[in-house]
Every structure is written in structure tokens, then in C-alpha cells.
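Response to reviewer comment R2.3. The reviewers asked that we include at least one raw input/output pair. We reproduce the pair for Oxidoreductase here without editing.
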Amino acid sequence: MAKIAMLGSGFIGRFYADSLQGYRSRDKIVSIYSRRTESAQRFAEDYKVAHHTTNMEEAIANPDVDIVCIALPNNLHEAAVMLCCLHRKAVMTTKPLGRNAEEAKRMLQAVEQAGIFNGYLEDLVYTPKFIKALESVKEGALGRILWAKSRETHPGPHSDWFWDIEQAGGGCILDLGCHCVEITRSYIGKDIKPVEVMCWADTQVKPIDAEDHAIGLVKYENGAIGQFEVSWTFRGGLDLRDEVMGSEGTIWINSFLRTGFDMFTSGKGANYVAEKAESNTGWLFPVGDELNELGYNHMFMDMFNAMEAGEDPKETFYDGYVVNCILDAAYRSAKSKLWEPVQLDIWRGKTGVTKDSHLTEYDADHYLVKEEVTHYGAKKVILKNKKTGKIVERVME
Ligand SMILES: NC(=O)c1ccc[n+]([C@@H]2O[C@H](COP(=O)([O-])OP(=O)(O)OC[C@H]3O[C@@H](n4cnc5c(N)ncnc54)[C@H](O)[C@@H]3O)[C@@H](O)[C@H]2O)c1
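Raw output as returned:
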């Protein structure tokens, strides 16, 4: 059983608490920190938490606490992590790890120096669909991964601080791109180095200093390409989709707006439908078990199993740091309009990986371009002569 201090009683703090305590789990929140007494008190009542406080250090230092869960605005992650290091408390932090790579690096180095357990709470690489998809990719069902795209778009976040570039550290690139980058990086291989980023970003709708819409490409050392599409201006709910293309196969995942559950209602008795759903009448796309569909349950299971076994979880501060480095390059590219290198001072994956060959052997003299069975029953092969480079077609029957 893990005894948890929750820092933050807002949107994600409550999602986390529902996941941690909502399924007869043995893990228990024993202390809650929030900015205002009323919020801390309300959270303590709702989740039967023994101790509540408006003093962050008091929650962390509480002797009953084994692990601290940081669910605070982005600008407070670093201070909270440093207090966990000071009090030698295991720590898990919501995404993004830092507002930029510099902050993330300081946090990574601090937890490693303190020798404390550290987990990066990237829930979207723990969704049941993602776990199954990644298993298939790892078993080779898709062959060589060529392109992995992830899209997260919605009509914008739910609290003031997100919209303030100083507190949030960025706009939708940082807020949503962190999910997409870790998803696509996982499909391509977390040991494959991201090398450069090209990104378009703009503020198209909202009266803010940060970007509210962006599209980016992340090039990896093995020639694979990651793509993220993020927006705070999308209308129609929360659009969470991934596409993976490999030399032997394809995966399409729709995690939220199309989960196989469509409902029509005139609006009578209409209630909460799903996160960021914009409507509660007409045709709706509810999500059966949001906590599970969004990966929170599997994520905490991994965190606590790893902590108990004295191992690293699947996602650590190091992953959060790599994601921040990629997003920093995206911000630089959006300004320079050029491919920008990913500056990774700390890299623990493979180095010097070269692009895989794109040539498929057919026979001693030819490479295979394509096989095709036509509607008129012919089987054709299209080949390239290795010596002359000439493309030829053979009809087999
Ligand atoms: N899927 C996800 O993983 C996911 C989803 C939403 C948010 N988040 C992350 O969780 C963190 C918190 O986001 P949220 O949506 O819960 O925000 P929120 O505004 O709903 O809650 C923020 C909490 O922090 C507390 N707080 C303490 N000091 C504060 C201050 N100076 N200003 C504002 N709040 C302060 C508030 O009391 C509140 O309890 C962010 O880092 C965000 O990126 C992650």
C-alpha cells in the first residue's frame, strides 16, 4: 500500500484521486495540499483524506507520506520537486515535467542526486488501446516504423493559469504536444534519438501571447518521422487520435470522440458526457470509463509496482526531460521557420544509428518495388534492376 500526498486539488488532482481510490485500491491519499483552505478541505472530505494543508512543504514532509503526487500548475513543478528531494520523498509529476528543458534537466538531476523514485505521469502511453498497439509494434506486426502521428485538440483548457504564458510556459505545444511527442516517440522507439524538429505555430483565435494551434514534425536518427497536431481552438470536444505507419502495417486509434459509443439525446436529464465535450444534446460520444480509457489506472499501477520492486517505472523524469527538449526545439523552429536541432545534453539511448535500407531483395538482379493482383485477375510484380536502375513489370499469370 502506498500512502500519497497529493499536491493540487484541481482538475487533474481529482482525476488522479478518482483513479487511485476509486477501484478498491489499497493505495491511499493521506495528505492534500491546495492553495485555498476551502479547496483542501473539500478534497479531504470528498476523498476521506486525514490531513489537509495550504502549506506545500507540510504535506510533503508529513511522516505518513511515502510518495508525493504533483498535480500543480506547470510553474510550480520545480519547487515541489526540490522539496521532495529535500525531504527524500518519492515523487511522481504530472506532465509537462518542466516549462522548458532547462527546468526539466534541473529536476532530473535533483531527483537522481537525491536517489529518490521518480515517475513521469504521461497517462496517454498507458491507455489500454496504446498498450495493445505498442505490444503489436514491438512484436513486429507493423514492420519498420516509418511515421507516427498523434493529435490532441480541444477547445482550450479549463483554468486561468494555462492561458498565462509565464505560469504555463507555453501554449498548446507544451500543454498537448508533450502527450503527442511521448506517444509517437514510444512507437518509434524511446532509444532512438530525436534529431531535429520543424514546427508551424500560430495564435489563430484566442487573445493570448502563446500559440493556440501548431503542427510539428520530429525527425529521428533512424529516419522515422514523428508528427504532432495540437490545438486549443478545435470545436467539437476532445479529439485524441494516433496513426502509426510501418513497412508491414498500419494502426489507427481514436481514443475519445469515437470509442464505439454513440448516443442521441434531446437534452432531458443530460449530464456530464466526457472531458471537454462541448454539448450535452444531439448526437454525443460518451466515454465508458474515462479513468481507464485515459490510462490513469494502468499508469498508477506501473508507478506503484515499480516503486515496490525498487525499479524504474515505464515513464521517468528522464522521459519528461527528453520531451521538453523536443518541444523546446519546436518552439525555436516555429520562430526561425527552419529545422532546429534537438539539444539533448543528457542522452541515454542508442547513438550513431543509421537509416534502415529501403531496398527489398527480389532476386539476384532485382529489388522488389511492388506486387499487385488486378481486378482482371493478373498477378504483377514491379521490379528494379540492381545494375541499370530500370523499372520493369512482369505479369506472372
Ligand atoms: N492528462 C493529464 O495528464 C493532465 C490533464 C490536465 C492537467 N494536467 C497537468 O496537471 C497540472 C495541474 O493542472 P489542472 O488541470 O489540475 O489545473 P487546475 O487549475 O484545475 O488545478 C490546479 C491546482 O493547483 C493548486 N494551486 C496551488 N498554487 C497555485 C497557483 N499559484 N496557481 C494556481 N493553482 C495553484 C490549485 O489550488 C489547484 O488545486 C498541470 O501541470 C497540467 O499540465 C495533466
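The longest strand covers residues 145-153. The radius of gyration is 24 Å. Further pairs are available on request from the corresponding author.
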